[in-house]
Amino acid sequence: MTEENPENRADKIGGVIKRAETTLSFWSIFPQIAFSLVLLTISLYFRSTGVTPFFWFLLVFFVISLILPLLSIISYVRVKKISPDATPLTTLPPGANEIILDEKLLFHLGGITKTGFANYGVAILGAGTNKHPENAILVTNKRIIFIYVPFEYGDKFVDGVDVHGMQFMFAQKAIDEKLESIVNSETLEKIILKYSRLILPLEKTKESFSPLLLGFIQNLSVNFSCDGKKYGYGVITKDKLNQLKECFNSINAIS
User: Fold this and answer.
1) 171-196 burial string, b = 16+ CB within 10 Å, else e?
2) How far is it, in rounded angstroms, from Cα 243 to Cα 255?
3) Left (φ > 0), alpha (ψ -120 to 50) or beta: where does 150 sit?
4) pLDDT over 90 for what percent of the chain?
5) Stretch 28-34: mean pLDDT, rounded?
6) Which of 20, 81, 148, 156 is the most buried (most CB within 10 A)?
7) What three-state secondary structure class fits 166?
8) How far apart are CA 142 and CA 177, in angstroms?
């Protein structure tokens, strides 16, 4: 039996979510149509029996109830049309993702996720884009760079489901291996141009770590402060948190 390529696992998670939510969205239309037809039938019954006030009340309610299946149909169409490809990002300031003279990659780690309060985006009528799908961090001698290693539907909300979150939870190895492949096959300049989502200057950024246990939930996160703003990212294992600690301890020792 051929072993599954770990990179395919993250893509498969996205594909399974897309197919499942598309199917659920489709079948959710029919109960709402049935409900509207029941209201119409009851209203016509009251009309035929001469109970006019109930007829008009239910008829108005029937017209209003038609909005629900209409919205469900629109939602289904939007979910069905969601593209697996990454949405181009245009939020970085001009020139921010250009290479700096003598910049060298010191450290990279996959399998991170944005934490804290932020505008993550929303799903409107079944579809939306996650504005913070960053799932890997690069540290150079100049900057801290958060990138999105692309997978199918990885930066999308599919019928309200955050695909990035599912891939973070269940496809860590896939993210690690694809990041490793990107780092080994592409130049730092190309990686920054293609995948960067947030870039912080190393000399202006301070980091702090939070290996806290909140009940049964372990909060493993690193927080970055730069120019009065804070950015939080979580990891899923202590080992990854320790790797980040060692990286920044080494940089701080040199500087």
Assistant:
1) bbebbbbbbeebbeeeebeebbeebb
2) 19
3) beta
4) 53
5) 89
6) 156
7) helix
8) 25
